[in-house]
Specification:
With about 625 residues, the chain is of the alpha/beta class. Helices cover about 25% and strands about 35% of the residues. The strands form 9 sheets. A 6-stranded mixed β-sheet has the order 2-1-3-6-4-5. A 6-stranded mixed β-sheet has the order 33-32-34-37-35-36. The model is unreliable at about 20-25 (pLDDT under 50).
Length: about 625
């Protein structure tokens, strides 16, 4: 009988026998921090082979063997789990983001419903990180190919949860297909498991044979930079000479970012921009590359650009203050910086009028509505003065006059009392007013007219309506108007559509009702000249913050329309079923199936995703009916 401790010792001695003799005297991975994540565990067994082998057990055993090999080479290695227990994906990512290892590897083994699947290896690297994870992933792919561990191996850009949410360079490995009998048999043996661990270890060893490239901010500077200039100059150091740096800034089209070597200080560099930034908050991401071709891990720096206010302007909501007006009277305050751009940061300004003084907090829209508390006994003009935090001052005088026409000062709100800006107020087809960012508007009409009908057009997301303003003779009317939402479920939701150009007409027909319902729809790039255009589209989707839904539209050699969803996505299945059900209710003669799919875009986006697959030659009526039912299902689910 072999005790567990002795078994582990024998396994480790077997692994050591695979290390070349010349390598056993050094520590090529010394100083490298690696986190291994054995996938699944506990109640979540993952894939299960025909003979009952559980993926969760296999993942853990491979990770343990790999840990021994990496530690023998001097690496510091931790496991997200050491036992057969459940561990949420969020916890795995949390552990990584707390430890910030040089490399995170999630170990898995795949399965297929295909009765005769090819046994192959898949190495997934974080598509949002084209640096270390891709670099190491290439070596892993080559290692599995050379070892002929499976029929073939491929490297795939990915958006799995543990990859796209990971701040460390992250890879997910699918060593082989546990659902293939020969592969399951191999993985049940110690030799098969240790061989897989050895392939991964050798690949990591080869990737780091010339040492990792590490960059850091100079003298441990903060990773948040607050500036009062549109230009930044960030000093950083590296542990070896840098060939180039790739840098990007979100929410900005700034492309002119460069580096220069600080000659007086070895391995010290300056990263700077030559195109100015506007006021606002940005995330700068930088990644360096050494002359040996080794990339560094990404470094993220939060930039907060607070450009001084250079000019203050006013936009009165109404042309004058009606005599006797009592209550809150609005006036828009507009702040500009030295580049004549709207101030898009929150600042404290001072508002003064009629011997009153109060704080005015601006918002990120660049235009802030101030309210003057009037008593109704003002007879002269009201002087308004605003002073910004840097001392810039401006003032305006608002006249007080007796209305010669009916004075209408109103407010328009929509779903959940949200103010509706840029809405058109019309009379007899002519626009007579536009709402400001707070939903406020002003117009006047003849005193001789008692009832006055207006048409309100709020824009996308809310229904237009007509309203009759009735007066009992008073000259000032303060109406509160409310618009109903077209679809509360879609209002302000971000939806991305991916489809080849041949489906432009269908995409356009779907975009129109979604936009009308208030959704923010974008088209993802699907270049026809690329072998896997969905890779680029998914990468683009995962860069969109707060994305609600991805809709992928395809034409395939299938008999029936298919609405596919990711197998473990409850929201995706609910939506796919809703599309199928509403279609069958209205078009019972057309077959539609709702099913789990293996499409790349289903499993690699953070947002809920569905695939709409249509036969190659459906008639136009069928296509139109499909778009109508998809739109209907989205509005009501």
């Amino acid at each position: 009988m072999v005790h567990m401790k002795n078994y582990k010792k024998l396994a480790f001695l077997f692994l050591l026998s695979t290390i070349p003799a010349f390598a056993q005297g050094n520590k090529p991975l010394a100083g490298l921090n690696i986190m291994l994540d054995p996938g699944h565990g506990g109640a979540d067994s993952g894939a299960v082979g025909h003979l009952g082998l559980k993926e969760s057990d296999t993942n853990l055993r491979v990770a343990r063997y790999l840990k021994m090999l990496l530690e023998h080479d001097g690496a510091n290695v931790t496991l997200t789990r050491t036992q057969d227990k459940s561990l949420p994906l969020s916890k795995r990512v949390e552990l990584s983001n707390e430890a910030m290892p040089d490399l995170f590897i999630s170990v898995h083994h795949n399965a297929s419903l295909n009765p005769k699947p090819q046994n192959h290896t898949e190495i997934y690297y974080n598509a949002l990180d084209s640096g270390v994870s891709k670099f190491v992933g290439e070596h892993m792919t080559e290692g599995f190919e050379e070892a002929k561990f499976t029929d073939y191996s491929k490297k795939i850009p990915a958006g799995f949860y543990v990859l796209r949410n990971n701040n460390a360079p992250a890879i997910l490995t699918e060593g082989s297909y546990i659902s293939v009998p020969d592969s399951e048999k191999n993985l049940r043996s110690g030799k098969g498991l240790t061989n897989e661990a050895a392939i991964l270890w050798k690949a990591i060893r080869k990737a780091y044979e010339k040492g990792p490239l590490k960059i850091d901010l100079y003298n441990g500077a903060s990773e948040k930079l607050i500036m009062d200039s549109p230009y930044f100059n960030i000093l950083f150091t590296a542990n070896k000479a840098i060939k180039n740096v790739k840098a990007s800034i979100n929410n900005s089209n700034i492309a002119n970012v460069d580096i220069k070597n600080i000659m007086a200080y070895p391995m010290t560099y300056s990263l700077y921009n030559s195109s100015p930034l506007k006021s606002g908050k940005y995330e700068l991401t930088m990644m360096a590359e050494s002359y040996e071709g080794m990339p560094s891990a990404k470094k993220k720096i939060n930039l907060e650009v607070n450009l001084p206010v250079n000019k203050i302007g006013f936009k009165p909501v109404a042309q004058y203050i009606p005599m006797g007006f009592k209550g809150r009277f609005p006036i828009d305050v507009v702040l500009f910086d030295e580049q004549n751009n709207l101030n898009t940061r929150t600042i404290n300004a001072k508002l003064e009028y009629n011997n009153n003084s109060e704080e005015l907090v601006t918002d990120e829209s660049g235009i802030t509505t101030a309210f003057l508390e009037l008593k109704g006994d003002e007879t002269k003009e009201v002087k308004v003065c605003v002073t910004a935090d840097n001392g810039v001052k401006s003032q305006i005088s608002l006249p007080i006059a007796m209305p010669v026409q009916r004075f209408v000062l109103g407010k328009l709100t929509g779903f959940n009392d949200m103010p509706l800006p840029n809405a058109a107020i019309k009379h007899n087809g002519k626009t007579i007013a536009k709402t400001n960012q707070k939903g406020l508007f002003y117009f006047d009409y003849p005193l001789s007219t008692k009832d006055f009908e207006i048409e309100v057009q709020p824009g996308p997301g809310h229904n237009s309506f007509t309203q009759t303003l009735t007066t009992n003779g008073e000259p000032v009317i303060l109406p509160l108007l409310e618009a109903s939402a077209v679809s509360p479920a879609l209002l302000n939701k971000k939806i991305a559509i991916m489809a080849q150009s041949s489906l432009d007409n269908m995409v356009s027909n779907l975009t129109k009702p979604l936009t009308y319902s208030g959704a923010k729809v974008c088209r993802l790039d699907m270049p026809a000249n690329q072998e896997k255009p969905e890779y680029l589209a998914v990468l683009e989707a995962n860069r969109i913050k707060d994305l609600y839904l991805v809709i992928s539209m395809k034409v395939e050699k299938i008999k029936d329309i298919q609405i596919r969803h990711y197998h473990s996505s409850k929201n995706g299945k609910k939506l796919a079923d809703a599309v199928k059900n509403t279609f069958m209710q209205n078009y019972p003669n057309i077959s539609v199936k709702s099913t789990a799919g293996s499409d790349y875009e289903l499993g690699h986006t953070g947002a809920t995703s569905i695939v709409i697959a249509i036969p190659e030659q459906p008639d136009e009526n069928t296509r139109e009916a499909l778009i109508n039912q998809v739109s209907h299902a989205l509005k009501n689910n």
